[in-house]
Write a structure and sequence with these properties.
Number of strands: 14
Strand order of the largest sheet: 1-2-3-4-5-7-6
Number of helices: 6
Order of helices and strands: EHHEEEHEHEEEHEHEEEEE
Distance between the termini: 19 Å
Radius of gyration: 22 Å
Helix content: 10-25%
Strand content: 25-35%
Length: 302
């Protein structure tokens, strides 16, 4: 069973209505009734005029749907009218939709949903999908899933410590894409990742060699440290004599923003910014305060 998810607009209102109405009509009777049951193709078309929605299909037939509803700031995206046809529930389609919603909200900091308090099974699904309760709007629970995790990093030692914490989440085949201005702390963070992975060799800027391989001192993955600044594309890594398979290592790429797609369909997007008002430096040593924003992308992290 292959599920295809499309980003749709008002033209798909009939298909979205079919899924939403069937999904909500199959729920136990609630008081007050679910507002989704009052939707029509016309009202859904109006809702889809904004950020649109997602339609999950199997063999071209709609089986799941949702409406994307960002708040005015764009930082929060609500998932509205989230539903899967009763005949296709418990097959992972809802989780596929959540993953697709994360990818469809590249500039948002978090997703939010409203879940009925009387439906513990539904609340359990959202908890399993990475959402936590943040408030109540009777008869709903408001739940959120952060898309970006921000860390305040006061100095270079803290940056290396953060790298070690990230390393604990990494496994073979993972890709980390680092972005930030010159001297932001990308190599310092990579040093911490190297320590956390337990690899050999001093992690330094790979600018003049483009890529370095740091073998594991244990049974863990090696670290491949890449500087993409002078690469025309990460596909050029295939031409480098790395003597290792990228599927068996952890790859950290500095200056890799916008190029990661050629290596993997999933990666950690790590952006390093100077704290507001601080002037730019010239190297990673003696870092002044930074803000590090980590955003998981792709099915590996969803």
């Amino acid at each position: 069973m292959t599920v295809r998810v499309r980003h749709v607009g008002p033209e798909a209102a009939d298909a979205v209505w079919h899924v939403v109405h069937a999904a909500f009509a199959a729920r136990p009777p609630l008081h007050p009734p679910a507002e989704a049951l009052a939707e029509t193709p016309d009202t859904l078309a109006a809702a889809l005029e904004g950020a649109g929605g997602l339609l999950a299909e199997i063999d071209g037939e709609p089986v799941g749907a949702l409406v994307l509803d960002p708040d005015p700031s764009g930082e929060v995206v609500f998932l509205r009218r989230f539903g899967v046809l009763p005949s296709h529930q418990h097959h992972g389609i809802a989780h596929v939709l959540v993953s697709a919603a994360c990818e469809a909200s590249p500039d948002a900091a978090e997703l939010r949903i409203l879940a009925r308090q009387e439906l513990p099974g539904t609340i359990g699904f959202w908890l399993n999908a990475g959402f936590t309760e943040v408030g109540q709007q009777v008869p709903y629970l408001e739940m959120r899933r952060p898309l970006v995790t921000s860390y305040d990093v006061p100095d270079a030692d803290a940056m290396r410590t953060l790298g070690g914490e990230l390393a604990a989440r990494l496994r073979r085949g993972d890709l980390v894409v680092l972005s930030g201005e010159l001297g932001a702390g990308k190599t310092t963070l990579t040093q911490g990742i190297g320590v956390g992975l337990g690899v050999s060799g001093e992690v330094t800027s790979p600018t003049f060699v483009i890529a370095r391989v740091h073998p594991s001192l244990t049974d863990g993955p090696a670290l491949v440290h890449v500087d993409a600044y002078r690469l025309g594309g990460l596909a050029e890594l295939d031409d480098l004599d790395l003597d290792t398979s990228l599927e068996e290592v952890v790859t950290v790429v500095e200056w890799g923003e916008g190029l990661a797609e050629t290596l993997s369909d999933s990666h950690l997007d790590v952006r390093i910014e100077r704290a507001q008002g601080l002037a730019a430096g010239t190297d990673d040593d003696g870092l002044d305060p930074r803000i590090v924003r980590v955003r998981p992308r792709g099915p590996r992290w969803s």
